[in-house]
Structure formats: structure tokens, C-alpha cells
Write a structure and sequence with these properties.
Blueprint: H1 3-10, H2 13-26, H3 28-48, H4 67-98, H5 101-106, H6 111-141, H7 150-178, H8 183-194, H9 207-214, H10 217-231, H11 235-270
Length: 276
């Protein structure tokens, strides 16, 4: 693909972002609902924290966290990942139901541009939303997050996003093929979330599951962000986490792209792209 073609495709992305931004503004209640849902979860865990012995929690940078600080990071990372996963499949399903999916594929726009365009707004908002939510939780509940950890935490979250995007593309491929069934990917994400150490330490898992969890991108991202925000460990440990996270994220994204392209090619051969 020539540089001129790449530039032409990239110029189409702002149109997707503007469209999704206007749609988001039309449904402001969604923002309020998500914030209230997270707030209620945090309140529940605030009281659960009174029952948890901090001595059972991992130590980050020499700091023993409160259970609320521990779980807040896990909940926010999992919630933002879930939002991206849901958006990828939902955007494609919406195009199917409105009858514009086949039309979009017939335009002189590459499949990669359509994939990226459908989630560009969400990709931009995920790190912003996570930062705002964690900041609000830290202020509201007096959690001692280190300001110096914000940069490494945002970088780790950004590096984690492609993995979730890849899962979203797998979910979209399932929707293209079966019209429904994206819930199967949701089950996979639930399992990954369970093995992420979001709400309980990974050390409590059986030995085999602990080994698997060490290479779970969810767990790598959450632990790295906890190190940065709770332990204030700085850029050194964050760089080590990035060395583990980036290859996993690239593999996840590549798998998603291949699955989505295979699903599109299959439906084109069958002549069923327009069916929903």
C-alpha cells in the first residue's frame, strides 16, 4: 500500500470519531449509568474491605495496599477493557441491523480502516476514562495513589488495549458468521478476568492457574498499574511489564484481525454479507 493510499485511509478515521462522539452525546445517560454502576461496586467493596486482612494482599514497592485500593485498580481496568470489547462487536452488529454493513464493505475503504474506525472513539476514550475514574475513586475514598505512577499506568493501559481490541475482533467475527453468539467471547473475557487478580490475589489460585495467570495480559496490566499507582515504583518495573505485555497484546490483536478477515471472506464467498 502506497503512502498516498495510507494517508487517504487515515483521513477517513476522524469521520468515524465525529460520528461516535455525536452518538455518545445523544445518550448521556449511558455515562451516568456506568459511573453509578462502578460507584456502587466500589461502595460494596469498601465494606468488604473491612473483612479482609491486608496481610494477605501482595506488597507493591514496599507498600501494603488497602483492599479497596487493590480492588479499585482491578475493577477499573476490567471495566474499560469490557467497554472496548463490547463496542467492537456492537458497532458491527449495529451496521448489520441498519443494513449498512455490506454497503460499507462495498465502498473504496479497506477492511482495516473499517475495523479501526469503528472503535477509534473508544480507543481514544479508554485511557482517559480509566484515569478519570481512578482519580475520582482516589479522591472520594482517600486512596493513596502515587501521582508519579500516572504516566507508567496510562502507558501500561494503552499497551493493554490492543489485546482487548483483538478479543473484540474475534467477537465481531463470531457476529459476522453467526449473527449472534458474541456472548461466547464474553465468557472467555470473564475467565481471563477471573484469572487477572482483579478482586483477589493471584497467589490464592491453585498452582497451575497461577502459572497461567502470570501470562494473562489482564493480570500483567493490572499488576503493573498497581505497582505504579500503589507502590510508586516508577518507570523501571513498568518497562519490564511492557516487555511482557506488548508481545501478548500484538498476538491478541493479530489473532483478532485474522479471525475477522476470515469471517468476512467466508461470508463474501457465500454471498451472505447482507443477511442479519
Amino acid at each position: 500500500m502506497s503512502a498516498a493510499t495510507l494517508a487517504a485511509e487515515a483521513a477517513k478515521l476522524p469521520a468515524f470519531v465525529r460520528r461516535d462522539w455525536k452518538i455518545a452525546l445523544s445518550y448521556r445517560a449511558i455515562f451516568v449509568g456506568e459511573a453509578l454502576s462502578l460507584a456502587m461496586q466500589i461502595v460494596v467493596f469498601y465494606f468488604i474491605a473491612e473483612l479482609v486482612d491486608p496481610g494477605r494482599l501482595p506488597v507493591y514497592g514496599g507498600t501494603v495496599p488497602s483492599y479497596l485500593a487493590f480492588v479499585a485498580v482491578g475493577l477499573v481496568v476490567n471495566m474499560t477493557a469490557g467497554a472496548l470489547l463490547h463496542q467492537v462487536a456492537m458497532a458491527l452488529r449495529q451496521e448489520q441491523l441498519t443494513g449498512t454493513f455490506e454497503t460499507l464493505l462495498a465502498t473504496p475503504t479497506t477492511t482495516a480502516t473499517l475495523q479501526l474506525g469503528s472503535v477509534s472513539y473508544t480507543l481514544l476514550m479508554v485511557p482517559v476514562r480509566a484515569t478519570v475514574l481512578l482519580g475520582a475513586i482516589a479522591i472520594g475514598f482517600g486512596l493513596g495513589f502515587h501521582a508519579s505512577g500516572i504516566g507508567p499506568a496510562v502507558l501500561l493501559l494503552t499497551a493493554f488495549v490492543p489485546f482487548t481490541w483483538g478479543l473484540g475482533l474475534v467477537s465481531a467475527a463470531v457476529v459476522v458468521t453467526f449473527r449472534r453468539g458474541s456472548g461466547m467471547t464474553g465468557v472467555a473475557v470473564t475467565v481471563l478476568g477471573l484469572l487477572s487478580g482483579a478482586v483477589f490475589p493471584i497467589a490464592l489460585l491453585p498452582g497451575l492457574l497461577q502459572t497461567i495467570a502470570e501470562w494473562n495480559p489482564f493480570a500483567v496490566a493490572i499488576d503493573g498499574i498497581r505497582d505504579a499507582l500503589i507502590g510508586g515504583t516508577g518507570w523501571g518495573p513498568a518497562a519490564a511489564d511492557l516487555l511482557r505485555l506488548v508481545p501478548l497484546a500484538c498476538i491478541g490483536l493479530a489473532a483478532g484481525v485474522l479471525c475477522f478477515r476470515a469471517a468476512i471472506a467466508r461470508e463474501r464467498r457465500r454471498g451472505t454479507l447482507g443477511q442479519y
